[in-house]
Amino acid sequence: MKNLLFSTILFLVVAPCASAQVRPTVFTLENGMKFILLERSEEKNSVAVGWVAKVGSVNERPGITGISHFFEHLMFKGTNKIGTNDPVKDLEFIDAESSVRNHMLSIIWTEQYDKFRRGEINDPWDEKNDTPQLASLRIELKKLMEDHQSVVVKNELDTLYQGEGAVGMNAFTSEDVTFYINQLPANK
Question: CA 175, 145, 129 angle in degrees (round to 5)?
Fold first, then answer.
């Protein structure tokens, strides 16, 4: 009886959707980029654009694991033209920060975890348990990050879009997707 009731309710909810016909135009460029276009008659001169980059580990094949994460960094970590007033200095800061972080991680994964296993500390990542060397590296990293701001142009991408008449730039992130929203005039 429960199954019959559930099936009936499900049918009543889903049946109206069966008549809704959505007929998108689908095409693929030579480079493999696929487009799905759908006319929205209720909003003339408006287009919604989505781009999906299949860069998660679920899209990897055996033998190439890790390449998706690497590709993600290549694709989404900015450019040397937008967001900085000195690309060379920007890269120097990035390299220096990365070097200090790697040194810190090396200490945490070895010395701090050894102390943790011996019961000398309760959390290898907690700053309260830092060795003098690790504390010094944290200070060095903080200084590098503060100095790095001297070559960063804040909100440059937003400013560029707004200069072209864009409004409503926003983004949200979920476990599976980062979604960017922007509205541009029809003539741009």
Answer: 80
DSSP secondary structure string for all residues of 120-184 = S-S-TT-GGG--HHHHHHHHHHHHHHHHHGGGB-TTHHHHHHHHTT-EEEEEEE-SS-EEEEEE-
Q: Kindly report the backbone phi and psi dihedral angles of residue 7, in degrees, each rounded to the nearest multiple of 5, phi listed first.
A: -60, -40
pTM: 0.57
Rg for the chain, CA atoms, rounded: 25
Q: Give dist(CA 8, CA 14) in Å, integer.
A: 10
**What's the confidence (pLDDT) of residue 89?**
94
Dump the DSSP string for 13-34.
Answer: HHHHHHT-----EEEE-TTS-E
Token pair belonging to 76: 């989404």
Backbone phi, psi, residue 82, to 5°: -110, 130
Largest CA distance in the chain: 71
**CB atoms closer than 10 angstroms to residue 155:** 12
- For the segment 35-41, the average pLDDT, to the nearest whole number, is 77
Which tokens is 81 given? 């033209």
Residue with the bigger pLDDT between 181 and 102: it is 102
Contact 113, 124 (CB under 8 A): yes
170 token code pair: 């926003």
